[in-house]
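Please review the protein record below. Tell me whether the encoded fold seems credible here:
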Amino acid sequence: MNEFEQNVQSKRNDAIDSGIGFVVSFVFFSAIFVIGTVIQLLGK
């Protein structure tokens, strides 16, 4: 084992962090899409 495997900073599951990152980015892009759609509909 190398030094970094013995002294880890976070023991949390990487899948949980990946899922949170995916959800946050998905919500962000969905909000951008909704805002753009609302502006487009108001402009007609």
About this structure: Residues 21 and 31 are 15 Å apart (CA to CA).
